Amino acid sequence: MLSPQMNRLPPLPTDLPLWDFHEPDYSIPVPDPRPKPARPRLSVDERRLRRKISNRESARRLRVRKQKHLSDLRSQLDRLMLEKRESMDLLQLALCKHALVHRENERLASEAAVLRQRLWEMAGILKLRQQLNPLPPAAWTCSADDNNNSFACFSEELLALNSLLIALQNQTN
């Protein structure tokens, strides 16, 4: 028959590898020789009073925690509202800049169309002039009396416009 001390032995380890030659510790745990102090028995009223005090303290801690949480939420709300306001300001600024750029782009496109039309007209005039007067471009001159919008005054600028017109035609194709 097994003694009561034998029943307290720890179970044998089953997960040890086969090659582990260390011996497990089979020592018997020794109980603490010091006696535990007995708590004095409290009356029902004393226990009720202690429980009431404990509950009040617990409720106070809960109120403090709730108040801190509420304060944290308010500061987070303030921070998020400020971030939202800053983001809205940045968005408004970006929208204004976009509108300005869009208007400028429309103006430049309109101006480019007008200049393109003028270039086409000048190229037509240049071609007409070349057909009517087949002089080499170096012979074309402008005199003071030719400056009255007659088509007789051509210069190297018109030749540059003609090459620009050809470049524009190549870009659109």
UniProtKB/TrEMBL annotation:
Localization (cell): Nucleus
InterPro entries recorded: bZIP (IPR004827), bZIP_plant_GBF1 (IPR045314), bZIP_sf (IPR046347)
Keyword tags: DNA-binding, Nucleus, Transcription, Transcription regulation
SUPFAM superfamilies from the UniProt entry: Leucine zipper domain (SSF57959)
Major localization class: nucleus
Keyword Acetylation: no
GO biological process: positive regulation of DNA-templated transcription
Listed GO MF terms: DNA-binding transcription factor activity; protein heterodimerization activity; transcription cis-regulatory region binding
UniProt domain BZIP: residue ranges: 45-86
GO cellular component annotations of the record: nucleus
Top-rank taxon: Eukaryota
Protein name: Basic leucine-zipper 6
